[in-house]
Amino acid sequence: MKKLAIVGCLILAVSFVTSCLDSKINDTEVKLVTAEEMQSILEMEDVQLVDVRTEKEYEKEHIVNSQNIDFNSPTFDEDIAKLDKEKPVILYCKGGNRSAKCAKKLQDAGFEKIYDLEGGISKWRHSDKIEIEVKS
Q1: Percent of the chain clearing pLDDT 90 (strictly above)
Q2: Contact at 8 Å (CB) between 117 and 128?
Q3: I want to staple 134 with a disulfide (CB 3.0 to 4.6 A). Which of 34, 61, 77, 83 is the partner?
Q4: Kind and range of the H or E run holding 134
């Protein structure tokens, strides 16, 4: 009976430790956000807003106060390394594919909070929720 109680306590302890580890992993998951949610995050937190499209795409139009780090650039990894891992990052591209790939790289690099604009700039281009600067 005593052995059964010890085994039960060990199982409980292992379950507790495992659940704590899982919650830590979940803290660094990439969160898809709408334009409205992104705007709220930008207003409430000191965030790094990153456009991962090409420089040409960025020059044509981009979200105000974003910085351009081209996902397909040969210096992409070096450029991303310059970002602060402790500050939240919001990523966007044209439709969501490049930003999702970038988010995975940031996650693997140990960034603490990563947001990805759902559907990219194309989905929200005509929304009144975000301010887009367009080259005339």
Answers
A1: 70
A2: no
A3: 61
A4: strand 132-134
Structural domains of the chain, ranges and CATH numbers in brackets? 28-134 (3.40.250.10)
Amino acid at 85: K
Mean pLDDT of 82-99: 97
Question: What was the pLDDT predicted at 27?
Answer: 55
Q: Where are the beta strands (DSSP E) in 72-111?
A: 89-92
40 to each of 13, 18, 67, 134, how far by Cα in Å? 39, 33, 19, 22
CA distance 10 to 14: 6
pLDDT confidence band for 2 (50 / 70 / 90): low
* Spatial CB neighbours of 126, under 8 Å, sequence gap ≥ 6: none
CA 87 – CA 10 distance, rounded (Å): 38
State mean pLDDT over 37-55. 95
What would the two tokens of residue 63 be? 């979200």
pLDDT digits (tens, 9 = 90+) for 56-80: 999 999 999 999 999 999 999 999 9
Residue position matching structure tokens 């302890």: 13
Pairing outcome for strands 132-134 and 61-63: antiparallel
